[in-house]
Design goal:
The chain is an alpha/beta fold. The protein contains 12 helices and 17 strands. It has one domain: TIM Barrel. The strands form 5 sheets. Strands 1-2-6-9-10-13-14-17 form an 8-stranded parallel β-barrel, surrounded by 5 helices.
């Protein structure tokens, strides 16, 4: 099944919510190491759709300790309630410090100046399952076309940060490619996002691969915005004319096999980016199985000192 990241996000943009403090096991996990290494479950999306429990067991057997979800629909993670999914993870010795759910304009009520119950429930479920970061990985096209509309929605980002903070969580944003393709008022959308969101309320999860085809270069960005990136999607890219997840002639590959200086990027972001969470994501596989690629990616990261 060929399902692009863009279509997947649009199709599964539901909501997030939370009303609990950080679980002790997450705090303990953070104390045990300065850096969290995990995998975005979109990397094995077809396997998770067919057999989520069996797929998680295989990832745990490979040595993964942390996962990041890309499926939250009708208050369920891969078909499980928040409490049940937490138990599944606990039984496998896995943690889920972050997760992806799209927050869109429909999640904010302009009349009441408050979030919808759906978004509040999203945050609530994120807390129940043990997340630290509630990350929205999309920005509607309409918000990329008007500067004032974008600024108004970035204020909602900050408000979502305030909502998450009440539950001991932090709200975040994950980039794709359009933030580096388009400008408003003479400024790249990505720079506007970073300039107009409060670092104490909104973390940035930088995806070093998504941006590449649009001209985004992680090593340049961290010099411009040091300390702003608590989380990273670790990804490598190869040329793929006429293909690519973002329609930009590039697609992801096994770490170290592509054209990005991934290890250098990771090391610089450890030192200058404020980055503590490193999430492996691979969306294309060049004829290999997603699980085999996930195993290779983990081995590469461990060879780099994780």
């Amino acid at each position: 099944m060929k399902l692009t990241r863009r279509k997947f996000l649009v199709n599964s943009s539901i909501a997030l919510a939370g009303t609990m403090l950080l679980p002790d096991f997450i705090l303990a996990n953070k104390k045990a190491s300065d850096h969290i290494l995990g995998i975005q479950l979109y990397s094995v999306r077809d396997d998770m759709q067919k057999d989520p429990l069996g797929t998680l067991k295989q990832l745990a057997a490979m040595g993964y300790k942390n996962v990041e979800h890309a499926n939250y629909i009708d208050r369920k993670f891969y078909g499980y309630s928040a409490a049940d999914f937490k138990k599944v993870l606990d039984d496998l010795g896995l943690y889920m410090p972050s997760g992806h759910t799209v927050m869109s304009a429909k999640d904010w009520n302009t009349s009441t100046k408050d979030f919808t119950d759906v978004w509040k429930q999203t945050v609530e479920d994120a807390a129940i399952v043990g997340e630290m970061y509630v990350i929205s990985p999309w920005l509607d096209e309409s918000l990329r076309q008007n500067y004032d509309d974008l600024l108004a929605f970035l204020d909602v980002f900050n408000k979502s940060g305030e909502l998450c903070k009440k539950s001991g969580l932090k709200f975040g944003y994950h980039n794709h490619d359009f933030e580096f393709k388009y400008s408003l008022n003479g400024k790249l959308i990505y720079d506007i996002i970073l300039d107009k969101t409060d670092p104490d309320l909104v973390l940035q999860q930088i995806d070093i691969g998504n941006m590449y085809g649009a001209g985004g270069r992680a090593l340049e960005i961290v010099q411009k915005h040091p300390g702003r990136f608590q989380s990273m999607h670790v990804k490598d890219e190869i040329k793929a004319p006429g293909k690519g997840e973002m329609g930009d002639n590039y697609e992801s590959t096994v770490l170290g096999k592509g054209i990005l200086p991934v290890k250098e990027i990771v090391d610089v972001f450890k030192a200058k980016g404020g980055t503590t969470e490193f999430i492996i994501e691979q969306e294309s596989y060049q004829g290999k199985s997603p699980l085999d690629c996930s195993k290779e990616d983990l081995a590469v990261m461990k060879s780099w000192g994780f």
